[in-house]
């Protein structure tokens, strides 16, 4: 059994649903989530895979650079297992989509 978070579930659903409106809504969410989360909940939880998805889909070099910077800035502060796992998953996904 594979345990997935929301990001992974959505990426598994995308090719199955094949609805342009659904894909557009997910991309809009990916573009805006970090700022909405900060504005509404004052959350600074990293959402690098979500940001990387938006950068990849938009072919946005500025967002791409920003998300890579966020990954490397956090690299020295992986002080617990969850942080290290999150960082690793982010790095794997980002290499997959942003290094093409």
Task: Round the Cα radius of gyration to an integer and report it.
Answer: 14 Å
How large is the count of helical segments?
5
Q: Give the averaged pLDDT, no decimals.
A: 89
The N- and C-terminal alpha carbons lie at a distance of 30 Å
How many strand units? 0
Q: What is the molecular shape?
A: globular
* Overall helicity: over 70%
Order of helix and strand elements from N to C terminus = HHHHH
* Low-confidence spans: none
Biggest sheet: strands, sense, closure? none
Describe the SSE topology:
Elements: H1 6-17, H2 20-41, H3 48-58, H4 61-74, H5 81-98
Helix pairs in contact: 2-3, 3-4, 3-5, 4-5
Please explain how this structure is put together.
By secondary structure, the chain is mostly helical. It is 77% helix and 0% strand. It is built from 5 helices and no strands. The chain is globular.
Q: What is the structure about, briefly put?
A:
The protein is mainly alpha-helical and 100 residues long.
Using brief descriptors, characterize the structure shown:
77% helix, 5 helices, mainly alpha
């Amino acid at each position: 059994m594979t345990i997935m978070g929301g990001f992974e579930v959505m990426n598994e659903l995308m090719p199955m649903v094949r609805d342009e409106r659904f894909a557009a809504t997910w991309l809009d969410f990916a573009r805006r989530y970090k700022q909405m989360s900060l504005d509404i909940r004052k959350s600074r939880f990293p959402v690098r895979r979500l940001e990387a998805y938006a950068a990849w889909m938009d072919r946005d070099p500025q967002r791409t650079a920003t998300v890579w910077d966020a990954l490397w800035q956090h690299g020295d502060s992986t002080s617990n297992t969850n942080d290290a796992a999150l960082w690793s998953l982010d790095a794997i996904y980002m290499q997959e989509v942003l290094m093409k």
